[in-house]
Write a structure and sequence with these properties.
There is one protein chain. Helix content is 61%, strand content 0%. With 118 residues, it is mostly helical. The mean pLDDT is 92.
Length: 118
Protein backbone atom coordinates (compact mmCIF):
# COMPACT_ATOMS: atom_id res chain seq x y z
CA UNK A 1 0.00 0.00 0.00
CA UNK A 2 2.75 2.43 0.87
CA UNK A 3 5.75 2.74 -1.39
CA UNK A 4 8.10 3.26 1.53
CA UNK A 5 8.28 4.16 5.22
CA UNK A 6 8.06 7.88 4.45
CA UNK A 7 4.63 7.42 2.85
CA UNK A 8 3.42 5.23 5.72
CA UNK A 9 4.31 8.05 8.10
CA UNK A 10 2.37 10.59 6.08
CA UNK A 11 -0.96 8.85 5.42
CA UNK A 12 -4.02 10.63 4.13
CA UNK A 13 -7.54 9.70 5.24
CA UNK A 14 -8.04 7.46 2.22
CA UNK A 15 -4.88 5.48 3.10
CA UNK A 16 -6.00 5.13 6.72
CA UNK A 17 -9.48 4.00 5.69
CA UNK A 18 -8.09 1.38 3.29
CA UNK A 19 -5.79 0.04 6.00
CA UNK A 20 -8.61 -0.02 8.57
CA UNK A 21 -10.52 -2.58 6.53
CA UNK A 22 -7.52 -4.56 5.29
CA UNK A 23 -5.66 -7.54 6.68
CA UNK A 24 -2.34 -5.70 6.45
CA UNK A 25 -0.16 -5.48 9.53
CA UNK A 26 0.54 -2.16 11.18
CA UNK A 27 3.09 -0.25 9.08
CA UNK A 28 5.18 0.75 12.09
CA UNK A 29 5.15 0.17 15.83
CA UNK A 30 4.21 3.76 16.71
CA UNK A 31 1.99 4.38 13.70
CA UNK A 32 -0.79 5.88 15.84
CA UNK A 33 1.40 8.99 15.98
CA UNK A 34 1.09 9.25 12.19
CA UNK A 35 -2.69 8.83 12.07
CA UNK A 36 -3.67 10.89 15.11
CA UNK A 37 -4.81 14.43 14.42
CA UNK A 38 -7.86 16.47 15.31
CA UNK A 39 -8.94 16.11 11.69
CA UNK A 40 -8.73 12.29 11.79
CA UNK A 41 -10.30 11.59 15.20
CA UNK A 42 -13.94 11.51 14.01
CA UNK A 43 -12.96 9.00 11.32
CA UNK A 44 -10.98 6.93 13.83
CA UNK A 45 -13.99 6.93 16.14
CA UNK A 46 -16.17 5.64 13.31
CA UNK A 47 -13.73 2.74 12.88
CA UNK A 48 -13.98 1.87 16.58
CA UNK A 49 -17.77 1.82 16.20
CA UNK A 50 -17.69 -0.38 13.08
CA UNK A 51 -17.44 -4.11 13.71
CA UNK A 52 -16.28 -4.54 10.09
CA UNK A 53 -13.08 -2.63 10.86
CA UNK A 54 -10.24 -5.11 11.17
CA UNK A 55 -8.07 -2.95 13.43
CA UNK A 56 -10.42 -1.75 16.18
CA UNK A 57 -7.90 -2.38 19.00
CA UNK A 58 -5.29 -0.28 17.19
CA UNK A 59 -7.68 2.62 16.64
CA UNK A 60 -9.03 2.50 20.18
CA UNK A 61 -5.50 2.55 21.53
CA UNK A 62 -4.65 5.46 19.25
CA UNK A 63 -7.56 7.46 20.73
CA UNK A 64 -6.12 7.00 24.22
CA UNK A 65 -2.67 8.02 23.00
CA UNK A 66 -4.18 11.11 21.39
CA UNK A 67 -6.02 12.15 24.54
CA UNK A 68 -2.93 11.58 26.67
CA UNK A 69 -0.73 13.61 24.34
CA UNK A 70 -3.18 16.53 24.20
CA UNK A 71 -3.77 16.64 27.95
CA UNK A 72 -0.13 16.11 28.84
CA UNK A 73 0.86 19.00 26.54
CA UNK A 74 -1.09 21.38 28.79
CA UNK A 75 -1.87 23.58 25.77
CA UNK A 76 -5.17 25.30 26.48
CA UNK A 77 -6.12 25.57 22.79
CA UNK A 78 -5.62 21.84 22.17
CA UNK A 79 -7.48 20.87 25.34
CA UNK A 80 -10.44 23.07 24.37
CA UNK A 81 -10.42 21.59 20.88
CA UNK A 82 -10.41 18.09 22.38
CA UNK A 83 -13.38 18.99 24.60
CA UNK A 84 -15.37 20.19 21.60
CA UNK A 85 -14.40 17.08 19.66
CA UNK A 86 -15.51 14.80 22.50
CA UNK A 87 -18.94 16.48 22.54
CA UNK A 88 -19.23 16.04 18.79
CA UNK A 89 -18.22 12.37 18.89
CA UNK A 90 -20.58 11.67 21.80
CA UNK A 91 -23.51 12.46 19.49
CA UNK A 92 -22.79 9.43 17.30
CA UNK A 93 -20.80 7.03 19.51
CA UNK A 94 -22.43 3.60 19.60
CA UNK A 95 -20.08 1.15 21.25
CA UNK A 96 -19.28 0.84 24.91
CA UNK A 97 -15.56 1.12 24.12
CA UNK A 98 -15.93 4.44 22.37
CA UNK A 99 -18.19 5.85 25.07
CA UNK A 100 -15.73 4.77 27.76
CA UNK A 101 -12.94 6.59 25.88
CA UNK A 102 -15.10 9.72 25.76
CA UNK A 103 -15.84 9.58 29.49
CA UNK A 104 -12.22 8.85 30.42
CA UNK A 105 -11.03 11.67 28.20
CA UNK A 106 -13.45 14.13 29.80
CA UNK A 107 -12.26 12.99 33.22
CA UNK A 108 -8.63 13.46 32.23
CA UNK A 109 -9.31 16.97 30.96
CA UNK A 110 -10.85 17.84 34.33
CA UNK A 111 -8.15 15.99 36.30
CA UNK A 112 -4.91 16.14 34.27
CA UNK A 113 -2.85 14.96 37.24
CA UNK A 114 -4.56 11.59 36.87
CA UNK A 115 -2.68 11.10 33.58
CA UNK A 116 -0.61 7.94 33.55
CA UNK A 117 1.23 6.94 30.39
CA UNK A 118 0.61 3.26 31.07
Amino acid sequence: MWRDAQHAWNPNQKDIRIWAYSDMKIPDQDWELAVNSFENIPMICSFVDDEKCKHIPFFLSSLYVFTGDVVESGEEKGIKELSVLLEKVSTFAKTKELNVWIERSKHLIQHPRDYNYD
